[in-house]
């Protein structure tokens, strides 16, 4: 990962920048317009997502812009988005390793069937599909992935 990228705990002063990155990344991944307003998305980030998840962001220290988002808890990765211009630089892998290290030896996550890039990423990082067809507000088919620590993992 580029030395200019720092993974930090989310701070609400990054809210608008985080949501802009999140929406851009999601649009690129699923080619669907966001169904929530920008303001509702900021509210969700600051008041709902943080209730059951530890939120971290990746910040490019050269320009102080948010380039990644991880919301996770010991059982699941709830949100993982990387700015399209910063993908394939190890940020997502660093976030997944962080979530694994804080897990109870098992993590689940959903990704959209149309997001084949995410599927390849999760499979390269030890996740396997265990179910299909989760209901979501986007109305898209989902895949449920799971990672289970092997006995050699130090979790």
TrEMBL record:
Keywords carried by this UniProt record: Transferase
Ranges of residues in domain N-acetyltransferase: 5-150
Keyword Cell division tagged: no
InterPro entries, A to Z: Acyl_CoA_acyltransferase, GNAT_dom, MshD_Acetyltransferase
CDD domains in alphabetical order: NAT_SF
PROSITE patterns, per database record: GNAT
Pfam family, one: Acetyltransf_7
GO MF entries: acyltransferase activity, transferring groups other than amino-acyl groups
Protein's name in the database: GNAT family acetyltransferase
